[in-house]
Design a protein that fits this description.
Elements lengths: L2 E5 L3 E4 L4 H14 L2 E4 L10 H14 L7 E7 L6 H9 L3 E6 L19 H10 L3 E3 L13 H16 L5 E3 L5 H9 L4 E5 L1 H5 L23 H11 L6 E3 L8 H4 L14 H11 L6 H13 L7 E10 L4 E3 L2 E3 L7 E6 L7 H4 L3
Helix pairs in contact: 3-4
The protein binds N-carbamoyl-L-aspartate and zinc ion (ZN).
Length: 356
């Protein structure tokens, strides 16, 4: 197969940041994805409807003309988030989820939740209104091995929360383990999971291949091969509970290549080709469209996209870096080859750009 045309996909987990970084990364996403669930872990975090509305305005202003891209906003849940704010969020047409970061679990999560018991009233409002809870599913207990944090979170937080609030709708974000796959499959309704390209294509050896590789470091961290295989099986199974979420998370080169490097992998410009590569490995390119364009929209109760996009089977080299002001952004697979590329689609805005 040399060409693959599918419904234009959406990215159900994306970090756009703000200001100059956003201006740099947004075009790559908007060129491919019609919509994205935009993570709220700015500094300070997006905790109110008013802040989410203002952030949405900034994203729209930074969007290339004619891109046809819609940001789907989220709120950052803290122990101080009120039920009133969540009801307000549920009544908007632009807030589509509320993100739970256990405090200290990942980049910009300090304002997150320390004691899950304290957010039960908030979770009750989510269960009642149907606004999905988006979960960074890792415990933060320093005594728990970093590779076991996701599995432990299922037993100590996710399972108890869902038992208490069976109607709560949850997206288990960027799953990385066989336990997470099994848990999602065990629930009949209301629970789904996003999957990143890195967790489909790499196991934890990638972090140490010939030396320490900071550009393969994200959270949840890459896992052992048997977990990668389980996550790849889930993504390519056709099960509508699993869908695309790149977790593309840009950090300047200096912040990654550091004695204490940031967690986060930048993948937006090559994400769809990476997913295609993973599905091709499994002989399941026929299921890429469901994973990338249907399952997420169906879970979020949004219409499927009408436009189409074409992937061409053609080798290309990923740039070694992208400019970012005085710094650089190093993408996943920097300087390496990819097997698929996205065919350029003529956009109504293109003609105006040269005269701007
Ligand atoms: C994300 C970031 O940089 O914002 N980092 C990451 O490693 N995935 C935060 C997150 O999604 O955990
Ligand atoms: Zn993320």
């Amino acid at each position: 197969m040399h060409e693959l045309t599918l419904t234009r996909p959406d990215d159900w987990h994306l970090h756009l940041r703000d200001d100059v970084v956003m201006a740099r990364v947004l075009p790559a996403t908007a060129a491919v994805f019609a919509r994205a669930i935009v993570m709220p872990n700015l500094q300070p975090p997006v905790t109110t409807v008013a802040q989410a509305a203002a952030y949405r305005d900034r994203i729209r202003a930074a969007c290339p003309p004619g891109a046809g891209f819609t940001p789907l906003m989220t709120l950052y849940l803290t122990e101080a988030t009120t039920g009133e704010e969540l009801r307000l969020a549920a009544h908007t047409d632009f807030i589509h989820g509320v993100k739970l970061y256990p405090a200290g679990a990942t980049t910009h999560s300090d304002a997150g939740v320390r004691h899950i018991d304290r957010i039960f009233p908030a979770l009750e409002v989510l269960a009642e209104t149907g606004l999905p809870l988006l979960v960074h599913g890792e415990v933060t207990d320093p005594d728990v091995d970093v590779f076991d944090r996701e599995a432990r979170f299922i037993d100590t937080a996710l399972e108890p929360v869902l038992s208490r609030l069976p109607t709560l709708r949850v997206v288990f974000e960027h799953i990385t383990t066989a336990q997470a796959v099994a848990f999602v499959r065990s629930r009949a309704t209301g629970l789904a999971a996003t999957i990143t390209p890195q967790h489909l294509l790499y196991n934890r050896n990638a972090l140490f291949q010939g030396g320490l590789r900071p550009h393969y470091y994200c959270l949840p961290v890459l896992k052992a091969e048997r977990h990668r295989a389980a996550v790849l099986d889930a993504a390519t199974s056709g099960d509508p509970r699993f869908f695309l979420g790149t977790d593309s998370a840009p950090h300047a080169r200096s912040a990654k290549e550091s004695a204490c490097g940031c967690a986060g992998i930048y993948s937006a410009p090559l994400a769809l080709p990476l997913y295609a590569e993973a599905f091709e490995q499994m002989g399941r390119l026929d299921r890429l469209e469901g994973f990338a364009a249907f399952h997420g929209a169906d879970f979020y109760g949004l219409p499927r996209n009408a436009e189409r996009i074409t992937l061409i089977r053609e080798d290309w080299s990923v740039p070694a870096s992208y400019p970012l002001g005085s710094s650089e952004l190093v993408p996943l697979r920097a300087g390496e080859r990819l097997r698929w590329r996205v065919a350029p689609t003529p956009k109504p805005g293109n003609g105006q750009e040269s005269t701007a």
